């Protein structure tokens, strides 16, 4: 993609930045427009998810995929396999692929494909945004609903029309600008509990994002604007652990009670990774099966789970020589491999399927 190299040195204003031109959302969408297939796939993804959150659809959602996408080819390879699996389990589970292009870091590190698409610190964000949108279009073309983290306050203006579900991460759930942005997003948004395990901040975020807000943002032409949102009624809580895991029945009950007290819908997604697995990917299946057992025992607040999974198990460091890197292996948090993922999802499907009939009756009552 052609880069506009107009650079403005703002040192005279006393700011420690150099500005580089970036296409507007309208310009990028003009270069990479959605087609009928992607538009339909995104809309259907959002519809299924909102119906699950409203309890009009008795299925469960499984948000599954790499911790981050660093190689779109491998991500699409993964997506092809996931699409087949999604079809096989669709009577009980709605599979949504994690397509995370932005990574929040505890301190520093690679911040994702949008920020640094060449993985070498060159940080060509215009190219990164182009690549992210292009990848989302291809994923949409497969008919797979896609999930992403809305980390940068402006990225969703470029990509949001191709996304069916968004997360606000543990490091930003308490941030007012992220809550304001979420209040204007057109898809369901999951708020993670804080990195220290604080669940109340995410529940406050749900309450805040459900309301309308007026805030500074960017319009479709890339100009600063005063934005007025209508409020997002499809916020929900993601329990990701922190300090200690929080997927056990006592923690879930506590989260439910806190949500009821704060008058937000008791909808919970359990993240099997991060603090709930102590970042040990081999623990993710144990967490997921525990959650399935809780559902079998009658839990009604858990609407789904999240899994960090890629083609290969584990993680790897970014190497200057890309040929030395393992194909389909995470460059951020360690993941479970495809084989384990498939077994896990099929096992959950086998166990949850018999409960659907029961749920149908409950939904109808
Ligand atoms: O999901 C990914 C990571 O947990 C998150 O980006 C933080 O990673 P870090 O602690 O390695 O920076
Ligand atoms: C960064 C992530 O999670 P968290 O915000 O829970 O650390 C993630 O899901 O990629």
From TrEMBL:
Taxonomic superkingdom: Bacteria
Entries under Gene3D superfamilies matching the protein: Aldolase class I
A biological process from GO: amino acid biosynthetic process
Keyword Phosphoprotein among UniProt keywords: no
Name of the protein described by the UniProt record: Phospho-2-dehydro-3-deoxyheptonate aldolase
Keyword Transit peptide: no
Function: Stereospecific condensation of phosphoenolpyruvate (PEP) and D-erythrose-4-phosphate (E4P) giving rise to 3-deoxy-D-arabino-heptulosonate-7-phosphate (DAHP).
Domain DAHP synthetase I/KDSA as annotated: residue spans: 51-344
EC number(s) on file: 2.5.1.54
Cellular component per GO, a single term: cytoplasm
Pathway the protein acts in: Metabolic intermediate biosynthesis; chorismate biosynthesis; chorismate from D-erythrose 4-phosphate and phosphoenolpyruvate: step 1/7
Alphabetic keyword roster: Amino-acid biosynthesis, Aromatic amino acid biosynthesis, Transferase
């Amino acid at each position: 993609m052609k880069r506009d190299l107009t650079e403005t040195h703002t040192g005279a204003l006393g700011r420690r930045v150099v500005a580089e031109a970036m296409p507007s959302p309208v310009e990028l969408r003009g270069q990479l427009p959605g087609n009928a297939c992607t538009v339909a796939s995104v809309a259907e993804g959002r519809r299924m998810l909102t119906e699950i959150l409203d309890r009009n659809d008795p299925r469960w959602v499984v948000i599954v995929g790499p911790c981050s996408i660093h190689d779109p080819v491998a991500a699409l390879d993964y997506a092809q396999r996931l699409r087949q699996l999604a079809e096989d389990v669709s009577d009980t589970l709605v599979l949504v692929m994690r397509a995370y292009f932005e990574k929040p870091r505890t301190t520093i590190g690679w911040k994702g494909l949008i920020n640094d698409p060449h993985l070498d610190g060159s940080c060509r964000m215009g190219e990164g945004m182009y690549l992210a949108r292009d990848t989302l279009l291809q994923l949409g073309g497969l008919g797979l609903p896609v999930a992403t983290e809305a980390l940068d306050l402006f990225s969703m203006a470029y990509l949001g029309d191709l996304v069916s579900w968004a997360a606000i991460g543990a490091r930003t759930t308490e941030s007012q600008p992220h809550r304001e942005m979420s209040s204007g997003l057109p898809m369901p948004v999951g708020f993670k509990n804080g990195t220290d395990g604080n669940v109340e901040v995410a529940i406050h975020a749900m309450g805040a994002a459900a309301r309308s807000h007026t805030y500074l943002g960017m319009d479709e032409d890339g100009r600063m604007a005063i934005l007025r949102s209508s409020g997002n009624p499809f916020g929900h809580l993601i329990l990701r652990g922190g300090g200690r895991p929080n997927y056990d029945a006592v923690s879930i009950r506590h989260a439910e009670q806190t949500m009821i007290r704060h008058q937000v819908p008791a909808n919970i997604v359990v993240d099997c990774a991060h603090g709930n697995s102590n970042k040990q990917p081999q623990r993710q299946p144990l967490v997921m099966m525990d959650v399935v057992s809780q559902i079998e025992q009658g839990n009604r607040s858990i609407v789904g789970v999240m899994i960090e999974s890629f083609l290969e198990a584990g993680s790897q460091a970014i190497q200057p020589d890309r040929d030395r890197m393992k194909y389909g292996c995470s460059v951020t948090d360690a993941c479970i491999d495809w084989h384990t993922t498939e077994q896990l999802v099929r096992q959950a499907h086998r166990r949850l399927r018999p409960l659907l009939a029961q749920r149908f009756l409950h939904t109808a009552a």
